[in-house]
Specification:
- By secondary structure, the protein is of the alpha/beta class.
- The protein has 10 helices and 12 strands.
- The strands form 2 sheets. A 10-stranded mixed sheet has the order 1-2-4-3-5-6-7-10-9-8, sandwiched between helices. Strands 11-12 form a two-stranded parallel ribbon.
Length: 384
């Protein structure tokens, strides 16, 4: 870590990233060896606090697949395709495409639900930003978002980060050039969303953005930069906009939460978009303090009268598989439910309620995809 700090101060970000990755690989390898020594017989894969497998070579998103038990009468698609392939003869489509803007090119996948008979009304759209090492097919399979969108008539867009832009395909949420309107990754994501919305009869008042981990952090950045494009935001296991400005501060925020000065900067965001936040309180990759800082920043931006004096409605619950959570609902100055925070008890760094057909999922948790769609569809921009 000292090598990484020196490299960062010297402007050698490539060296800093390599040093951080070496440190994390070493830490994970030590943990794996300790876990193996704790068992007799063949050593199992190292498991984190949530019981999910850990890949020691991944910087962001250490959780791999969680086995999902077979359910009588339920079909399971092949890995990487669950929830993505359209039903034969349904009229729905699962398309691949490419988009260029400001000398940046993104590949993407696009899910188009079947048209309702006789219904020519514009449809809502959700832009889904994957986590590090993921791609669109994997993220769609893990979140099951297409299957839910099929029933609700929602278009789903999955931009893909390039390996040229980031070696692990992470969105560069921690770099200043990717934290501003009109520049970098937020600009190309917003331009892609506008393009798809125009081409595929999407309601411009019902365009939403959500993401996991680095994708969750970028979703908050994009929502902050483009409130005229996106109506609401979903952040799963992410970090607040402005909490980091380089590799070293990003890693510090991931491990311990934003520094007080960074958290204060993150709060100066103007009027906040409606946002739904999910985070595991046993997340060993992105500390849960990041979710808490994000919620506080969003409350600060909710307008006069919606700050600390507005106590949230707090309820405790559990998923059908027994995973516990606490849900806090905050109102804005007009008395509308504009912010939800789902603290996932005992959960690690994984999409809650997802499918084991994709990576970084926790099938035992509450259905984050379903709750996000429910929240999004209740917050069209025209209603604010």
């Amino acid at each position: 870590m000292a090598d990484a700090a020196r490299s960062t101060r010297g402007g050698r970000l490539g060296e800093a990233t390599e040093a951080i990755q070496r440190a994390l690989r070493g830490a994970a390898a030590q943990a794996q060896a300790k876990a193996a020594a704790a068992f007799s017989g063949p050593a199992p894969a190292f498991r984190g606090t949530s019981g999910m497998s850990v890949d020691p070579t991944v910087l962001d998103g250490l959780v791999r697949e969680v086995p999902e038990p077979e359910v009588a009468g339920e079909a399971h698609a092949a890995p990487g395709t669950a929830g993505t392939a359209p039903r034969e003869g349904s009229g729905e489509r699962w398309q691949a495409g490419s988009f260029s803007h400001q000398n940046r090119t993104l590949a993407y996948r696009l899910y188009l639900p079947p048209d309702a008979p006789g219904d020519g009304a514009p449809r809502p759209m959700v832009v889904m930003l994957h986590g590090c090492t993921q791609h669109a097919e994997d993220f769609a399979a893990g979140t099951r978002m297409n299957a839910l969108a099929r029933e609700l008539g929602v278009v789903v867009l999955y931009p893909e980060q390039t390996q040229h832009a980031n070696a692990q395909k992470c969105w560069n949420w921690f770099k200043p050039q990717h934290q501003r309107r009109g520049r970098g990754e937020p600009a190309v994501i917003a331009a892609l969303a506008r393009s798809i919305a125009t081409k595929h009869r999407v309601d411009p008042a019902r365009v939403y953005v959500a993401g996991l981990s680095a994708g969750g952090a970028m979703a908050d950045v994009v929502g902050h930069c483009y409130p005229d494009v996106f109506a609401a935001v979903g952040v799963h296991s992410g970090l607040p906009h402005g909490c980091a400005a380089d590799v070293a501060s990003a890693l510090s925020a991931m491990r311990s939460g934003p520094a007080p000065a960074a958290a204060g900067t993150a709060g100066h965001r103007g009027a906040a978009l409606p946002t739904i936040v999910f985070h595991g309180d046993a997340d060993g990759t992105v500390h849960v303090r990041n979710a808490e800082a994000l919620v506080e920043a969003l409350r600060d931006g909710a307008g006069p009268g919606a700050g600390a004096a507005a106590a949230p409605r707090v309820t405790a619950g559990q998923s059908s598989r027994g995973a516990r959570h606490t849900r806090s609902v905050y109102t804005d100055a007009a008395g509308r439910d504009s912010l939800e925070y789902w603290q996932l008890h005992g959960a690690g760094h994984a999409w809650s309620g997802g499918s084991a057909s994709g990576s970084y999922t926790d099938p035992s948790g509450v259905d984050a995809s379903g709750e996000m769609l429910r929240f999004f569809l209740a917050h069209p921009r025209a209603a604010r």
